[in-house]
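Entry 14. Ran structure prediction on the chain below.
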Amino acid sequence: MHQYGIWIKETTGTTGTGTITLTGPINGFASFASQMSAGDTVLYSIGDNGGSNRELGVGTLTSPTTLARTTIRAKLIGTTFTANPSTGLNLSGSAEVAVTTDALLLEWAESIRQSTGHSGEVLVVGAGGLSGLSGTVDGGVVP
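Output, structure tokens:
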């Protein structure tokens, strides 16, 4: 199951297109290991070459400091976007890796919310899957 983290961003000195060795959190951020365990999968984002090259994918934390790039969902090199590329970025040795979400996940959640017919319902994604919350907010009823 995918894990979600809050304010996780680490540096990496990894080069090439393989598994990423995480070298510690950036000042003001947490490490992957502070909120996840080996075997957890996570949606990640990489910024390389000063952020001008990017990758979005699903990774598996194989140890507290190692992230396997399991599925590459998109990459951006300069201004060239590629969806579902066959390989990830060729990392330079100076990149940042963060836990993220993407537009596809948000679109999916919105489509589920709209299909319920409850425009005031708030969707919550957690360990038990997707659920809706309704109740009273500031004295008004949320349908």
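Residues 30 and 77 are 27 Å apart (CA to CA). Will compare against last week's run tomorrow.
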